[in-house]
Design goal:
By secondary structure, the chain is of the alpha/beta class. The chain has a single domain, classed as Decaprenyl diphosphate synthase-like (Undecaprenyl pyrophosphate synthetase), CATH 3.40.1180. The strands form two sheets. The protein has a three-stranded parallel sheet with strand order 1-3-2, with helices on both faces. Helix 2 packs parallel to helix 3 and helix 3 packs parallel to helix 4. The chain is globular. The N and C termini lie far apart (38 Å). Bound molecules: farnesyl diphosphate (FPP). Farnesyl diphosphate binds next to helix 1, helix 2, strand 1 and helix 3.
Length: 229
Protein backbone atom coordinates (compact mmCIF):
# COMPACT_ATOMS: atom_id res chain seq x y z
CA UNK A 1 0.00 0.00 0.00
CA UNK A 2 2.81 2.32 -0.98
CA UNK A 3 2.55 6.02 -1.69
CA UNK A 4 0.40 7.36 1.15
CA UNK A 5 3.08 9.81 2.25
CA UNK A 6 3.65 11.16 -1.27
CA UNK A 7 -0.10 11.43 -1.86
CA UNK A 8 -0.32 13.69 1.22
CA UNK A 9 2.82 15.70 0.44
CA UNK A 10 1.52 16.46 -3.07
CA UNK A 11 -1.48 18.13 -1.37
CA UNK A 12 0.53 19.88 1.34
CA UNK A 13 -1.03 17.64 3.95
CA UNK A 14 0.69 15.80 6.82
CA UNK A 15 1.78 12.24 5.96
CA UNK A 16 -0.80 10.79 8.33
CA UNK A 17 -3.55 12.25 6.16
CA UNK A 18 -2.23 10.07 3.34
CA UNK A 19 -2.38 7.02 5.63
CA UNK A 20 -5.95 7.95 6.56
CA UNK A 21 -6.88 8.00 2.87
CA UNK A 22 -4.98 4.75 2.42
CA UNK A 23 -7.12 3.08 5.07
CA UNK A 24 -10.31 4.39 3.41
CA UNK A 25 -9.10 2.67 0.28
CA UNK A 26 -8.76 -0.73 1.92
CA UNK A 27 -12.49 -1.54 1.99
CA UNK A 28 -12.87 -0.28 -1.59
CA UNK A 29 -10.17 -2.71 -2.75
CA UNK A 30 -11.57 -5.58 -0.65
CA UNK A 31 -14.85 -5.12 -2.54
CA UNK A 32 -13.18 -4.73 -5.93
CA UNK A 33 -11.10 -7.87 -5.29
CA UNK A 34 -14.22 -9.84 -4.33
CA UNK A 35 -15.90 -8.68 -7.56
CA UNK A 36 -12.86 -9.91 -9.51
CA UNK A 37 -13.21 -13.32 -7.86
CA UNK A 38 -10.01 -13.03 -5.82
CA UNK A 39 -10.07 -15.45 -2.90
CA UNK A 40 -6.97 -14.26 -1.08
CA UNK A 41 -5.99 -10.61 -0.81
CA UNK A 42 -2.86 -9.74 1.16
CA UNK A 43 -2.08 -6.16 2.16
CA UNK A 44 1.35 -5.16 3.41
CA UNK A 45 0.31 -2.84 6.23
CA UNK A 46 3.41 -2.60 8.41
CA UNK A 47 6.86 -4.09 7.92
CA UNK A 48 9.37 -5.02 10.60
CA UNK A 49 11.43 -2.10 9.26
CA UNK A 50 8.54 0.37 9.67
CA UNK A 51 9.25 0.60 13.44
CA UNK A 52 12.17 2.84 12.41
CA UNK A 53 9.78 5.60 11.27
CA UNK A 54 9.28 8.62 13.54
CA UNK A 55 7.49 7.46 16.72
CA UNK A 56 4.51 9.75 16.07
CA UNK A 57 3.98 8.15 12.64
CA UNK A 58 4.23 4.62 14.09
CA UNK A 59 1.77 5.64 16.78
CA UNK A 60 -0.64 7.08 14.22
CA UNK A 61 -0.43 3.91 12.07
CA UNK A 62 -1.28 1.74 15.11
CA UNK A 63 -4.26 3.98 15.86
CA UNK A 64 -5.39 3.76 12.23
CA UNK A 65 -5.26 -0.02 12.44
CA UNK A 66 -7.42 0.13 15.56
CA UNK A 67 -9.88 2.55 13.88
CA UNK A 68 -10.01 0.36 10.76
CA UNK A 69 -10.97 -2.64 12.88
CA UNK A 70 -13.52 -0.66 14.88
CA UNK A 71 -15.12 0.75 11.73
CA UNK A 72 -14.89 -2.23 9.45
CA UNK A 73 -14.88 -5.46 11.49
CA UNK A 74 -18.65 -5.77 11.02
CA UNK A 75 -18.25 -5.05 7.27
CA UNK A 76 -15.83 -7.97 7.06
CA UNK A 77 -18.33 -10.17 8.90
CA UNK A 78 -21.17 -8.98 6.64
CA UNK A 79 -19.09 -9.81 3.56
CA UNK A 80 -18.02 -13.15 5.10
CA UNK A 81 -14.35 -12.25 4.79
CA UNK A 82 -11.95 -14.20 6.96
CA UNK A 83 -9.18 -12.07 8.44
CA UNK A 84 -5.73 -13.56 8.86
CA UNK A 85 -2.49 -11.97 9.94
CA UNK A 86 1.09 -12.72 8.99
CA UNK A 87 3.83 -11.18 11.14
CA UNK A 88 4.50 -10.96 14.84
CA UNK A 89 1.56 -9.12 16.36
CA UNK A 90 2.72 -9.73 19.93
CA UNK A 91 4.74 -6.52 19.60
CA UNK A 92 1.73 -4.35 18.72
CA UNK A 93 0.33 -1.99 21.34
CA UNK A 94 -2.60 -3.55 23.17
CA UNK A 95 -5.15 -1.03 21.80
CA UNK A 96 -4.44 -2.36 18.28
CA UNK A 97 -3.73 -5.99 19.15
CA UNK A 98 -6.96 -6.62 21.08
CA UNK A 99 -9.43 -5.65 18.29
CA UNK A 100 -7.20 -7.48 15.81
CA UNK A 101 -7.35 -10.69 17.83
CA UNK A 102 -11.10 -10.29 18.27
CA UNK A 103 -11.67 -9.84 14.52
CA UNK A 104 -9.43 -12.84 13.80
CA UNK A 105 -11.65 -14.92 16.09
CA UNK A 106 -14.94 -13.47 14.84
CA UNK A 107 -14.14 -14.20 11.19
CA UNK A 108 -12.25 -17.50 11.60
CA UNK A 109 -15.17 -19.60 10.31
CA UNK A 110 -15.49 -17.81 6.93
CA UNK A 111 -13.82 -19.38 3.91
CA UNK A 112 -14.97 -17.77 0.63
CA UNK A 113 -12.69 -14.70 0.90
CA UNK A 114 -9.60 -14.17 3.01
CA UNK A 115 -8.00 -10.83 3.80
CA UNK A 116 -4.43 -11.30 4.99
CA UNK A 117 -2.87 -8.34 6.75
CA UNK A 118 0.92 -8.37 6.90
CA UNK A 119 1.64 -6.54 10.13
CA UNK A 120 5.08 -6.35 11.71
CA UNK A 121 5.96 -8.70 8.85
CA UNK A 122 9.28 -9.24 7.14
CA UNK A 123 10.14 -12.23 4.98
CA UNK A 124 13.65 -12.65 6.39
CA UNK A 125 12.36 -12.66 9.98
CA UNK A 126 9.67 -15.14 8.92
CA UNK A 127 12.24 -17.47 7.35
CA UNK A 128 14.55 -17.28 10.38
CA UNK A 129 11.67 -18.14 12.71
CA UNK A 130 10.58 -21.05 10.44
CA UNK A 131 14.12 -22.47 10.46
CA UNK A 132 14.31 -22.11 14.25
CA UNK A 133 10.98 -23.92 14.67
CA UNK A 134 12.05 -26.64 12.27
CA UNK A 135 15.42 -27.09 14.03
CA UNK A 136 13.56 -27.42 17.33
CA UNK A 137 11.34 -30.13 15.84
CA UNK A 138 14.44 -31.98 14.63
CA UNK A 139 16.10 -31.63 18.02
CA UNK A 140 13.02 -33.05 19.70
CA UNK A 141 12.72 -35.89 17.11
CA UNK A 142 9.46 -34.65 15.57
CA UNK A 143 11.11 -34.09 12.16
CA UNK A 144 13.98 -35.56 10.12
CA UNK A 145 16.14 -33.30 7.91
CA UNK A 146 16.21 -35.83 5.04
CA UNK A 147 12.40 -35.60 4.85
CA UNK A 148 12.35 -31.83 4.51
CA UNK A 149 10.84 -30.64 1.26
CA UNK A 150 9.26 -27.37 0.16
CA UNK A 151 5.72 -28.25 1.20
CA UNK A 152 6.94 -29.19 4.69
CA UNK A 153 8.97 -26.00 5.00
CA UNK A 154 6.01 -23.96 3.71
CA UNK A 155 4.05 -25.20 6.72
CA UNK A 156 6.54 -23.52 9.04
CA UNK A 157 6.01 -20.13 7.37
CA UNK A 158 3.38 -17.72 8.64
CA UNK A 159 1.46 -18.25 5.38
CA UNK A 160 0.84 -21.96 6.15
CA UNK A 161 -2.47 -22.86 4.52
CA UNK A 162 -2.52 -19.74 2.33
CA UNK A 163 -1.73 -20.31 -1.38
CA UNK A 164 1.32 -18.62 -2.88
CA UNK A 165 0.50 -15.25 -4.44
CA UNK A 166 -0.25 -15.36 -8.17
CA UNK A 167 0.06 -11.60 -8.57
CA UNK A 168 1.94 -9.03 -6.52
CA UNK A 169 1.02 -5.39 -7.08
CA UNK A 170 3.43 -2.66 -5.99
CA UNK A 171 1.96 0.81 -6.09
CA UNK A 172 3.72 4.21 -6.19
CA UNK A 173 6.38 3.43 -8.80
CA UNK A 174 8.80 1.56 -6.53
CA UNK A 175 10.27 -1.51 -8.20
CA UNK A 176 11.32 -3.82 -5.43
CA UNK A 177 9.80 -6.47 -3.15
CA UNK A 178 10.93 -4.86 0.13
CA UNK A 179 11.12 -8.09 2.15
CA UNK A 180 7.58 -9.16 1.17
CA UNK A 181 6.76 -12.90 0.84
CA UNK A 182 10.20 -13.61 -0.64
CA UNK A 183 9.86 -17.41 -0.77
CA UNK A 184 6.15 -17.46 -1.57
CA UNK A 185 6.72 -15.01 -4.47
CA UNK A 186 8.93 -17.49 -6.36
CA UNK A 187 6.49 -17.74 -9.30
CA UNK A 188 4.34 -14.66 -8.71
CA UNK A 189 3.74 -12.23 -11.54
CA UNK A 190 4.78 -8.76 -10.40
CA UNK A 191 2.90 -5.64 -11.46
CA UNK A 192 4.38 -2.21 -10.88
CA UNK A 193 2.21 0.85 -11.16
CA UNK A 194 3.05 4.51 -10.57
CA UNK A 195 -0.39 5.06 -9.00
CA UNK A 196 -0.19 6.00 -5.31
CA UNK A 197 -2.11 3.70 -2.95
CA UNK A 198 -4.90 6.19 -2.04
CA UNK A 199 -5.65 6.53 -5.79
CA UNK A 200 -5.45 2.80 -6.51
CA UNK A 201 -9.09 1.92 -7.24
CA UNK A 202 -11.12 -0.89 -8.80
CA UNK A 203 -10.12 0.16 -12.31
CA UNK A 204 -6.45 0.02 -11.38
CA UNK A 205 -7.01 -3.44 -9.92
CA UNK A 206 -8.75 -4.53 -13.12
CA UNK A 207 -5.74 -3.25 -15.12
CA UNK A 208 -3.39 -5.28 -12.93
CA UNK A 209 -5.53 -8.38 -13.42
CA UNK A 210 -5.58 -7.78 -17.16
CA UNK A 211 -1.76 -7.67 -17.11
CA UNK A 212 -1.81 -10.95 -15.15
CA UNK A 213 -4.19 -12.58 -17.63
CA UNK A 214 -1.75 -11.83 -20.47
CA UNK A 215 1.18 -13.55 -18.78
CA UNK A 216 2.25 -17.04 -19.80
CA UNK A 217 3.04 -18.84 -16.56
CA UNK A 218 5.55 -21.51 -17.47
CA UNK A 219 6.79 -22.57 -14.00
CA UNK A 220 10.10 -23.60 -15.55
CA UNK A 221 8.63 -25.44 -18.57
CA UNK A 222 8.92 -24.32 -22.19
CA UNK A 223 6.11 -22.51 -23.96
CA UNK A 224 5.80 -25.50 -26.35
CA UNK A 225 5.29 -27.93 -23.47
CA UNK A 226 2.53 -25.76 -22.08
CA UNK A 227 0.70 -25.53 -25.37
CA UNK A 228 0.87 -29.33 -25.90
CA UNK A 229 -1.00 -30.15 -22.69
C1 LIG B 1 3.08 3.06 2.72
O1 LIG B 1 3.09 4.44 2.40
C2 LIG B 1 2.14 2.77 3.78
C3 LIG B 1 2.48 2.34 5.02
C4 LIG B 1 3.89 2.09 5.40
C5 LIG B 1 1.51 2.08 6.08
C6 LIG B 1 0.16 1.58 5.67
C7 LIG B 1 -0.57 1.17 6.89
C8 LIG B 1 -1.64 1.76 7.38
C9 LIG B 1 -2.34 2.84 6.65
C10 LIG B 1 -2.15 1.31 8.73
C11 LIG B 1 -3.48 0.68 8.73
C12 LIG B 1 -3.52 -0.54 7.92
C13 LIG B 1 -4.67 -1.22 7.65
C14 LIG B 1 -4.65 -2.38 6.71
C15 LIG B 1 -5.94 -0.84 8.21
P1 LIG B 1 4.40 5.33 2.65
O2 LIG B 1 4.25 6.05 3.95
O3 LIG B 1 5.62 4.47 2.55
O4 LIG B 1 4.28 6.33 1.46
P2 LIG B 1 5.50 7.10 0.76
O5 LIG B 1 6.41 6.05 0.19
O6 LIG B 1 4.80 7.91 -0.29
O7 LIG B 1 6.16 7.94 1.82
Amino acid sequence: MDGNGRWARARDLPRIEGHRQGVQNVLRIIDAAAREGIEYLTLYAFSVENWQRPPEEVDALMHLLEIFLQQYAHELIERQVRLRVIGDISMLPEHARRPLEKTLQDTAHFSAHTLVLAINYGARAEIVRAVQDYARDVQESRARPENLDWSTLANYLSTAGIPDPDLIIRSSGEKRLSNFLLLQAAYAEIYFTPVLWPDFDGEELAAAIHFFSQRERRFGKTGEQLHQS
